[in-house]
Amino acid sequence: MAFLQVNYYSQVLGMDRVMNVILPELSDHNPNWTAADLKDIPVLYLLHGMSGDQAVWSRRTHIERLVRQTPIAVVMPSTDLAWYTNTQYGMNYFDALFDELPQKIGTLFPQISKKRAKNFVAGLSMGGYGAFKMAFSGQQFSYAASLSGALIGDPNFPGRDSWQNNAYWQGIFGELKKFTGSENDIIALAKKQSAIKQPLPKLYAWIGEQDFLFDNNQQTIPQIESLGYDVTFETSPGEHDWYYWDQKIERILDWLPINYQPEKRLS
């Protein structure tokens, strides 16, 4: 596997950006791989939470080791603190990540698949929200996963006031009284997508039973499932913490249709 830090320019945001990319390559660690295995490679877009950036998944989990023997690319971008959203202050982070970034990936890494069946997205906390939001916003992703996701369908979502003040949230989402039914309401997005009668993404969600977002997930997931989505929803003892996310990212890799091969060697 190659681990790349990619500095690129975003036309949408009008600024330089950074993403980390794990990219399969021929090496002694994978003697059975051929050049054909590294064409049309599946890709997982892995999204960070509020306190993270493009490096946090590689710093706090074993993601690089976990995919070492599985031919899948992992793209880790950053949305700063913008909630994978076109903000009210004119920074269109959602467009930059949903539309522009896959185009950039296609240009820089032509071996990565553009097929919906091989494009996946996952994230934790704010990134869980972002993953579902992206999956519900078009036909780009066939699988989406949320770990401890802030699955917002209500302006009074858990943790709002403790995370940031009201001015911050209005800068991201606009007037909170208008949030429900908006382009940022994932329940509204799921309803809109399901009504179009196009293929729906398969979904996975995990939430710890001691997580402050537990009730949020318990309320939101059944609403999504009732719309016809194939949802695998799991709970177990756990808090809002990297200790659990490091374990559950392997569960996501095993759930994805990629013939996941866990790392067995220490070398």
UniProtKB/TrEMBL annotation:
The keyword Hydrolase applies. It comes from the Bacteria. One of its GO terms (molecular function) is hydrolase activity. Signal peptide: none annotated. Keywords: Hydrolase. Pfam families: Esterase. This is Alpha/beta hydrolase. It comes from Leuconostoc aquikimchii. The lineage of its organism: Bacteria, Bacillati, Bacillota, Bacilli, Lactobacillales.
